[in-house]
Amino acid sequence: MERHSPLDLIRRGATEVISEVELAEKLAANRPLIVKAGFDPTAPDLHLGHTVLLRKLRHFQDLGHKVIFLIGDATALIGDPSGKSQTRPALMPSEVASNAKTYVEQVSKILHTRDAKVFELRRNSEWFEPIMDPIMDPAVHGEGVQFGFYQLVELLSRYTVARLMERDDFRQRLKAGQEVSMLELFYPLMQGYDSVKLKADVELGGTDQKFNLLVGRNLQRSYGQKPQVVITMPLLEGTDGVQKMSKSLGNHIGITEPPGEMFGKLMSIPDGLIVKYFTLLTDVDAARLKELERSVASRTVDTRNAKMALATTLVGMYHGEEAATQAQAEFIRVFSERKYPIHMQTIPIEPGPKQEVDLVELIVKFEFAESRNEARRLIKQGAVELDQEKVEKPVLLWSDIFSEGKKMVVLRVGSGNFVQLEPHQGDT
Q: What is the pTM of this model?
């Protein structure tokens, strides 16, 4: 990895630093900074979009600063309204707890989690859990209370509705006649109070988080603290190349996905994302990035080879070099040579009452999609094949699948999910 000045390393890939002057002053103080990033555990697995912030946290760790990986298990019960066109459905506490557990296990793939000097794991339920307690004035009940009704009243008194309504997505929703819940108005204050509680020097977030991060700065001033520096990072588009990477949109690449599946998804990203993925997700040096950007723009580089290098690098980072080499070889075998994987499960199926096969049902049953809606979307996107022929309908006739006496067909879903289908014994 190339040598960087501290500021150069921190700036890499960042969209905005508010402000660089303040950051330079904090770095010049020659003390470990407290660097915070919050993650609401709304889904069980981290994907490459999450790693943009995690890798920036790692940069701060490499510079000797202490990062706080904050699990927003309290804020997740509300749901971040950033960029949302409607109120999000509330999660159950049991879902949040289960998802948070997986985050703790996965984050160690990127961050130094065993060194207390540079890593601390916190949950904002530590101070928000008692919010439903009866009125508790710390002057009367002592400082043991983390966040009771008294603290809620105090926090709400420090921010105005007018300032909260400066948020673009709130204004747009109200203008369109859509509702904004009181809980959503409270969310930025909760996130900002996290910064107060942790006495953060720096907070990281995606560009869609800028409003929340600035609320943290303002609240810190109000509570008599020096305001945190805000660093926003770009949102990473998913495999569709359009929308922010999200599991709910089916365009995500999970860091715990099998190596072959991860490799295949990376090979499917649009050419226009190659440089961005290298910049935000790898440690490729600046000189090579500039050259890659020039060659991609001028179309003087084989983008397939560039994506192959990207996929090999990222699979190696999360699964090891041997797994990356195997995934590359299998990808070439399956997609370049149009051969099937060496090992495939064979599953017998039988037709429905109308001699039909519901492919949507099969895709969900084989766990190639989490829902029927996702399965239908994969079919619509042309990501489902039978014997290398794209499937266009969610329901097919049995005779069309096993035509001309076929005894076996290969179902492919997405970039790396294969299964052999055969008629159940006795079916024809």
A: 0.74
3-state secondary structure the chain: CCCCCHHHHHHCCCCEEECHHHHHHHHHCCCCCEEEEEECCCCCCCEHHHHHHHHHHHHHHHCCCEEEEEECCCHHHCCCCCCCCCCCCCCCHHHHHHHHHHHHHHHCCCCCCCCCCCEEEEECHHHHHHHHCCCCCHHHHCCCCCCCHHHHHHHHHCCCHHHHCCCHHHHHHHHCCCCCCHHHHHHHHHHHHHHHHHCCCEEEEEHHHHHHHHHHHHHHHHCCCCCCEEEEECCCECCCCCCECCHHHCCCCECCCCHHHHHHHHHCCCHHHHHHHHHHHCCCCHHHHHHHHHHHHCCCCCHHHHHHHHHHHHHHHHHCHHHHHHHHHHHHHHHHCCCCCCCCCEEEECCCCCCEEEHHHHHHHCCCCCCHHHHHHHHHCCCEEECCEECCCCEEEHHHHCHHHCCCEEEEECCCEEEEEEECCCCC
Stretch among 30-39, 52-61, 150-159, 413-422 having the lowest mean pLDDT: 150-159
Average pLDDT, stretch 144-160? 67
User: Can you give the pLDDT at residue 141?
Assistant: 40
Residue 135 burial (CB count, 10 A):
11
Do residues 204 and 57 touch, judged by C-beta distance below 8 A? yes
CA distances from 10 to 13, 63, 233, 395 (A): 8, 9, 11, 51
- What pLDDT score does 428 carry? 47
